[in-house]
Amino acid sequence: MFIEQLSESTEMYLKAIVEMSDRDMVAVSRLAERVNVTPVSANEMVHRLGEQGLVEHTPYKGVALTEKGREVACNVLRRQRLWEVFLYEHLKIEWAQIYELACSLEHATAPEVTEALATFLGDPRTCPRGNPIPAADGSFTPLDGLPLSEISVGKTVRVVAVNATETDVLRYLQEREILPGQEITVLEAAPLHGPLMLRMPGGKEVALGMSLAEFVFVK
Amino acid sequence: MFIEQLSESTEMYLKAIVEMSDRDMVAVSRLAERVNVTPVSANEMVHRLGEQGLVEHTPYKGVALTEKGREVACNVLRRQRLWEVFLYEHLKIEWAQIYELACSLEHATAPEVTEALATFLGDPRTCPRGNPIPAADGSFTPLDGLPLSEISVGKTVRVVAVNATETDVLRYLQEREILPGQEITVLEAAPLHGPLMLRMPGGKEVALGMSLAEFVFVK
DNA sequence: CGGAATAATAAGGGTAACCATAAGATTTTT
DNA sequence: AAAAATCTTATGGTTACCCTTATTATTCCG
Prior knowledge:
The structure is a homodimer. In chain A, a hairpin with a 6-residue loop joins strand 5 (183-189) and strand 6 (196-199). The first copy, chain A, is built from 8 helices and 8 strands. In chain A, strands 3-8-4-5-6-7 form a 6-stranded antiparallel beta sheet. A two-stranded antiparallel ribbon of chain A has the order 1-2. The first copy, chain A, has helices spanning 8-20, 28-35, 39-51, 67-90, 98-107, 111-121, 167-175, 210-213, and strands at residues 55-58, 62-65, 146-147, 156-162, 183-189, 196-199, 205-208, 216-218. The radius of gyration of chain A is 18 Å and the shape is globular. Chain A is of the alpha+beta class. Chain A folds into 2 domains: 1-142, Arc Repressor Mutant, subunit A, CATH 1.10.10.10; 146-218, SH3 type barrels (Roll), CATH 2.30.30. The longest helix of chain A is centred in the middle third of the chain and has 24 residues, at 67-90. The mean pLDDT of chain A is 94. The A-B interface holds A 87, 90-93, 97, 101, 104-110, 112-113, 116-117, 119-120 and B 87, 90-93, 97, 101, 104-110, 112-113, 116-117, 119-120. Chain A binds a DNA duplex through helix 3.
């Protein structure tokens, strides 16, 4: 396996795909939203990634990573999440900001640095957002949990991970203490995909929109 | 003062200029060598930097940073050298490699991260290569020392900094223990810019080419 | 002073990654 | 099945940064 020099853009797309594909293929339009480009641009890029053998694109269906693409993406994820741990645990940076800041550092990190960092941090297995950190060999236990949006009324669950990436969204959740480890009871689900009413540990009640609830993984 | 988003390339050029301008202007051709592009490309880039008000180019004389350029460059240097400290002191990465590895991290580092890192490291004043780390406000005490190449025969001096950037060069010096803090006696200088003979602490004698000796700053 | 070396400019190209607009293709909804 | 929505492709354009080759300008040095 050769160590090709992939562009920052390439890594961003691969990371987006691996983070969005819990089960099926990723629609190119969703991908475009995630990486903040027009669908046309995303389409072009998907072609380029296909030519490099990193993804498989089935027109009108979506994109999936190839084995090679998955390997690269896991590596990217490892770097990203190790930096998240460092920024949060050692640099004491605000929880909501670590994703964005780690994201920039990710591409600039050589393999030597990644492994030295992992050792320095004590080989953590999850990042501060609760997501698993792939091992150096690429192995990776996917998150076992369900989005909060699929939990039925009355159930009490524990947050295992928060999968959002935008700082605003993360800050919104942070302010409401919807964080890994918290115990939450779903009190009510408004009809027509309306917001969930949640009871938080202190007894406080919080309303959470469905699209936000999809980011919160619980067990 | 606006926080413009400068490209990685721009930052590289500015860093190269500030690191090379000990006294006079920097020749565009030498800059080209440093950043590893053709003189024509460097010339183009110098024009672009001039248009952005970062450098002042006097044809046939060289380039110098403007006040704005110097400010940006010091910031770049601060980030670069803080990472060098982290990589060396905490991640235990080989001395010769830290410049190159810190270089990639530099551009990806947001101001919040820079300052949190500085605090984490205990606000170090020099990097492992002996170079001063500019303060957060941009203030910066230039290195006081002379290149080893200008020391007269018979003198005993102490290495204060090693200004090389290429990993091969740094590794060559590392192997000969020409490192900050070492005491060196200049035994002989061969004619026609020939190599220097040096006596190292253990009594070992080492020959060092003139172009390498220019990187070694002593007092 | 005049030739050699060095520096700058001009002209023509290339690539990666984005954009907009518009025209087809396919899927989904009515 | 037709209309609507979504996806894909085509076309043409932009920016930043790099390249080569050739020409002109300046400086350095014998």
